[in-house]
Amino acid sequence: MTSTSSTVSQTLEGPDFFSRLLATVADGDRRMTVEDADGRRFVLVSEERYRALEELERRHGGLAPAAGRTPSLTAREREILQLTADGNPGAVVAERLGLAPNTVAQHLASVRRKYGVRSSAAAAALARQAGLVD
Predict the structure, then answer these.
(1) What is the pLDDT along the chain (134 residues), one digit of tens a residue?
(2) Do residues 78 and 71 lie in contact, with contact meaning Cβ atoms separated by under 8 Å?
(3) What proportions of the chain, in percent to the nearest 5, are helix, strand and coil?
(4) Fewer Cβ atoms within 10 Å of its own Cβ: the N or the C terminal residue of the chain?
(5) What does DSSP assign to residue 7?
(6) Does the reported pTM lie above 0.85?
(7) How far from the centroid of its chain's Cα atoms is residue 14's Cα?
(8) Degrees (nearest 5) of the Cα angle 107, 108, 110?
(9) Cβ neighbour number for residue 12 with a 10 Å cutoff
(10) 9 membership: H or E segment, kind and range
């Protein structure tokens, strides 16, 4: 099994593999990426670092979805995103759905956050790839 950290790259094997692996991660602010025999990579971090990442996610409403994962959208978010993907500006979407323009803007902001992108067009493109909008 191959492992790398921000400062070290080595192959760790033998009976004390796990104790050395955990000691490496526990040594403060270090992280270790481990690759299994199938080429899948995993990042090990200390509990302190993990809790900081959880707090960051909690404060910012989630992180960008992992590669290959589609975020869960509400029915209203999908409806608004579809109308936006069709080229309708927010004011037109709001009028068609009987919503306030700010409500439409908030739904689009939520969608952008869930996809981890800065524009509604980028979110619509990702949703289209995932088959959530036409």
Answers:
(1) 444 444 344 555 666 777 776 776 776 546 667 777 777 777 777 777 777 767 766 666 554 555 556 788 999 999 999 999 999 999 999 999 999 999 999 999 999 988 888 888 888 888 888 888 88
(2) no
(3) 50, 15, 35
(4) C
(5) S
(6) no
(7) 35
(8) 65
(9) 16
(10) strand 9-11
